[in-house]
Design goal:
The chain is α+β, with helices and mostly antiparallel strands. The chain has 6 helices and 9 strands; from the N terminus they run E-E-E-E-H-E-E-H-E-E-E-H-H-H-H.
Length: 290
C-alpha cells in the first residue's frame, strides 16, 4: 500500500506519529469508450459554450450559479481562502461508540505507527477498546478540513471520515407516520423467517458475480484473438517531514489529565461564583466657586 499522508494523532500533550493509507480499493474492471467501427478511443474535449473553443485544463476556472448570475472563482480567489495545512489529527472528544451513526461513515483509512516505538499507538488502541469509545477527530486532507471517527479494527486504528451533519438528508416520508397494525401472529411468522436465514456474516463468501463474468468474457476474447492493437486504437495517453517521537509518554499523559482537570475545575468555579453587584456610579466632584 502507498502512504497518502503522514502526521500525528494528538490528544492533550500526547503525540502519536502515524502514516495514513487508504483502507479500500475499487475492484471494478476498468472499461473505456471506443468507436464500434474501428475500436478507436473516444475522448472528451472541454469546449466553451460561449466561443466554441477547446479549453486547456490550465485555463479553466470554477464558478457558482446563484439564480440568474454566474460567479466566477479564479485560482487566485480559491488560493486566498484560509486552508489549513496541519499535519495533526486532533482528537476533539471521545464518545460512546454506539452514538456514531453508521449513516455518517464515509471513506476509511488505516493508520500505521510511524515511530521507533509503537507504544503510544498501542496504548491508544487498547484504551479505545477498554472504554468502548470512539475518538472524534479533525484533520486536513487535500486542503479540506475533515471530521472523522477513530476506532479500532483488530490490531489497527482506523480513521473513517464522517459526513457533516448538513450532508445527511432527513427521512421525511409521510407514509412512515401512517398507523399500521401488525398482529402478533404476523410478527411471529416474520421472526421465524428471520431465524431460518440467520447466520454469522462472512464477507469472503460473497462475490461480485458481474465483475467475475466480465473478467471471464475479456479473457475469452483475448484467447480468441478478438482484439485491436492499443497503439492503433488509443494513441498516446495524456498525461516528508519526519514525525516527532513521544519523549515521555507517562509524563505527557499525567500532564494532559492534570490540564484537563484544571480546565474543568476553573469552569466549575466560574459557574458557582456569585455575581458581583454593579459598581456604584461615582458622583462628580463639585467645582469650586471662582
Amino acid at each position: 500500500m502507498r502512504t497518502i499522508w503522514k502526521g500525528a494523532l494528538t490528544f492533550g500533550l500526547v503525540n502519536v506519529p502515524v502514516k495514513v493509507y487508504s483502507a479500500t480499493e475499487d475492484h471494478d474492471v476498468p472499461l473505456h469508450q471506443v468507436h464500434d467501427k474501428d475500436g478507436g478511443r473516444i475522448r472528451y474535449q472541454r469546449t466553451c459554450e460561449v466561443c466554441g473553443e477547446t479549453v486547456a485544463y490550465a485555463d479553466i476556472d470554477r464558478a457558482y450559479v446563484d439564480g440568474g448570475q454566474t460567479v466566477v472563482l479564479t485560482k487566485d480567489d480559491l488560493a486566498a481562502l484560509p486552508s489549513e495545512k496541519s499535519r495533526e489529527i486532533d482528537v476533539v472528544e471521545f464518545v460512546p461508540s454506539d452514538q456514531v451513526d453508521l449513516l455518517t461513515l464515509d471513506k476509511p483509512y488505516y493508520l500505521e505507527p510511524d515511530s521507533k516505538s509503537p507504544k503510544a499507538y498501542v496504548l491508544l488502541r487498547k484504551t479505545l477498546e477498554q472504554t468502548d469509545r470512539t475518538a472524534i477527530v479533525r484533520f486536513t486532507l487535500r486542503q479540506k478540513t475533515r471530521l472523522a471517527a477513530l476506532r479500532v479494527r483488530g490490531k489497527v486504528l482506523v480513521l473513517q471520515t464522517l459526513l457533516w451533519a448538513d450532508e445527511v438528508r432527513a427521512a421525511d416520508f409521510p407514509s412512515l407516520d401512517e398507523d399500521v397494525r401488525i398482529s402478533k401472529k404476523e410478527l411471529e411468522l416474520s421472526s421465524s423467517l428471520v431465524d431460518s436465514y440467520s447466520a454469522d456474516f462472512d464477507p469472503e463468501s460473497f462475490v461480485d458475480e458481474y465483475q467475475k463474468e466480465l473478467r471471464t468474457l475479456i479473457d475469452a476474447k483475448i484467447d480468441a484473438g478478438d482484439t485491436f492493437d492499443v497503439a492503433d486504437t488509443f494513441g498516446e495517453e495524456e498525461g516528508d517531514g519526519k514525525s516527532g517521537e513521544v519523549i515521555d509518554l507517562m509524563e505527557a499523559l499525567r500532564a494532559s489529565v492534570a490540564k484537563s482537570k484544571a480546565a474543568r475545575s476553573g469552569e466549575s468555579e466560574e459557574k458557582s461564583a456569585p455575581k458581583k453587584s454593579a459598581a456604584k456610579k461615582s458622583t462628580p466632584a463639585k467645582k469650586k466657586a471662582g
